[in-house]
Amino acid sequence: MVTIKDVAAMANVSTATVSRAINSPELVSDERREAVQRAIAALNYHPNDIARSLQKSESYIVGVLVPDITNIFTTDVISAIGTELQQHGYAMFLAISNHNPQTEQALVNLMMEKRVAGIIMLGSRRPNEESDRLINNAALSVPIVAIDYTNNCNLYCVRMDETLGIFKAVNYLYKLGHRRIAFINGTTSIVTHYYKNIGYVNAMTQLGLEQYIQPLTVEVSPDYAGGAKGVDLLLRGSVVPTAIVTGGDKMAIGAYYGLFDNGLRLPIDMSLVGFSGSTISGYTTPPMTTIDQKSAYLGTLAANIVIDVCTGNANVDRNVIIEPELLIRGSCRRIG
Which of 53, 60, 123, 270 sits at a 20 to 30 Å CA gap from 259? Predict the structure, then answer.
């Protein structure tokens, strides 16, 4: 008897795509849907015959859990995940925890009750012992990919080397002649900002600029208002910087406004580097120099890991670390 695997092999798609092409054709690209239809015709089987060969316990839904959707990086990652899942016949179940550990726990439980095929979790999560234990247990049943740092050996990890990214930003400004290099960052109780701060401290220390670390580091909310506030704090501090690195493009855009509001011009009066590589960073005035976090690539990679594990691929890397890239634009200038 011809099975769904035979149809998938002939169409050169996954069994999940065959199922979607039969039951939810709107979720499958025209090219893949037509390939499945040709395979069905060639094998002389009706779609209902193939559908009955599917195990009813199979799920083609992947849970995507994010702390919020206001982050520029997060929206780009979600878009890439959704696109990749759809191309392979999977649907996305998007859930937002609003940085609340209890909400996160309830959503993980809900996803497991709905028998999702896998879960993708985006940072930045606040460490929480009960949530971590729940996620660890869930990872024994379904593949869970963290687009973030994790010490959980049951999870798959896909992340950017954020420490190296900030290090590159500081080093770039140093080569342009800057010494008073400030850092506007989110709270270091959040894992991503903790590791970004390590990158800043390491770079400033190695460059012999330790004396500027304490007076030129500010922690703010990781949003537009936080970036503007960070500029105000720095301009009123004991040491005024010539350049600023931020822990995210959203803070950097806020810093643009803060500098303008204080009568300063980029890059004439201040140089600035963001972090994310978001689309909007290329449309600021001047275009923002930023660390490209390769959000679309991370999202695509996380989706493919879930799909590979679900389809039995045993050669899946559990810890993928991507090197960030400095995108040099117009918000920095040489001094001295």
Answer: 123
Q: For residue 271, give the H/E element and its range.
A: strand 271-276
Helix (H) or strand (E) holding 246: strand 243-246
Q: Please report, for residues 101, 175, 197, 203, 217, the alpha-carbon distance to residue 239 in angstroms, rounded to integers and kept in the order given.
A: 38, 20, 19, 19, 11
* Cβ proximity of 216 and 232 under 8 Å: no
Distance of alpha carbon 202 from alpha carbon 140, whole angstroms:
37
pLDDT level of residue 215 (50, 70, 90 thresholds): very high
CA 257 to CA 100: how far, in whole Å?
30
Burial class (CB in 10 A: 0-12, 13-18, 19+), 285: exposed
* Strand-by-strand arrangement of the 156-160 sheet: 91-96, 61-66, 118-122, 144-147, 156-160, 319-322
Q: How far apart are CA 154 and CA 295, in angstroms?
A: 23
> pLDDT tens digit string along 221-253?
999 999 999 999 999 999 999 999 999 999 999
* C-alpha span between 79 and 311 (Å, rounded): 22
In single-letter form, the type of residue at position 319 comes to: N
pLDDT at 150 over 80: no
